[in-house]
Specification:
- The protein has 428 residues and is of the alpha+beta class.
- Helix 3 packs across helix 4, helix 5 packs parallel to helix 11 and helix 12 packs across helix 13.
- The strands form 2 sheets. Strands 1, 2, 3, 4, 5, 6, 9, 10, 11 and 12 form a 10-stranded mixed sheet that branches. A two-stranded antiparallel sheet has the order 7-8.
- The protein contains 14 helices and 12 strands.
Length: 428
Amino acid sequence: MIISQSREKVKKKALSLINTIRRDLSKPLVKFILEMCMGMIQTSGCNVNRIAGILHEESAVKHTLKRLQRMLLNSKLLFLANQLSLKHSVSKIVSSTILALDGGDLTHQYGKKFEKSASVKDGSSGEIRDGYWLNQISGYNPESKETFPLLLEIYSTLEAGFKSANAETFKIVDKLIKKIGGLGLWVIDRGYDGGKVLSYFLSKGLDFMLRMKTTRNIIYNGKSENIYKVARLINRRVQLNKYGRFGSCKVKIKIERVEYEATLVCYKDKRNKEPMIFLTNGWIKSTRELKRRIRGYFHRWGVEECYRFEKQGFGIEKSKTRNYDRIKTLLGLTIISWLILIKINEHTGLREVVLKAARMEKDKLKDRPKFIYYRLLRGVQNMFAGLNLFSFRLKRKAKEKLKTEIAKNFPLFGDKLFINDIWWEMVA
């Protein structure tokens, strides 16, 4: 595949993705999204100053920057990005899909004057810093080994209308349940081991695998017992892999005077001193199903790479934007930028060209990582390095002048260099 054709296919993937929500957007906003998303991919960040610099508009960079900052006030873009993500990814969710619910944070180590910035715990360092809380739901299909984003929300404890962290969690889960019902296996970490969260998932009849803290009490043989004490009594007779074994027992959990049947699972790995304790809904007798749920929880650790990719691949923590609405918009643009890479990944031929352009030392199929998006990001950057991607803000006369000049330099190509009024490029 000729490299210029590959570039055009990447552009068309981005444009076709945006067109699915185009009826909800004005024409200037569509152009802004395309500029920002391709700029974020090209610069590996959401620094508006850098993106304004690579647009190469006729006006001064300060005027371009002012325009981008004004357009960033469209905070509804986060909502539209989540709608686009659901529309694109819901069809991938089946009964075996792993749905990872994870809380995160968005902190700025040296930023002190960000709007509505509150105290949060930095997941990387464990320190208390100023920032915002994040909620994300990501999906993973064990059959195709594909990881994909579903929903991403941001909230601040200083925001008007904030009730509680649990309320924000239920809000994002409700959005997905309305689309998929009871499909998938929810895998949840110890941070969500609370009575309200358990009551929510149990009352909704959702399949979940929740890692438990050792302080909770459960009902075992009709008596209230400490969960860690009961877990130590379980005979771990089933071999899961060469490192670990597990066992299970039937228990009940009482929340707000309502008793629910559940299965307590105790897993012990040779590499860890203490066993891991899980609680899953209902009474699961099938060993095969228990193995699937335990493996599903371990897949959650891989899905956590989603947060890392958003922070490292698109630099959402390095943004200098202080306005809360603009930060929301940047998060929405991050989701759309990732969806563009997913569209590339779904096109087999284009994916191979982009991966080749990444110029990785280990490029054989067996050496490829499961989380492929870092390589795709690098490949797209290398493909478009040194090229002027954008002509959205050029006036008609300026476009015609450039078109004439390039046609003179490339007489064999002529008008074929111009695909449509939105995208154009010089042949490298």
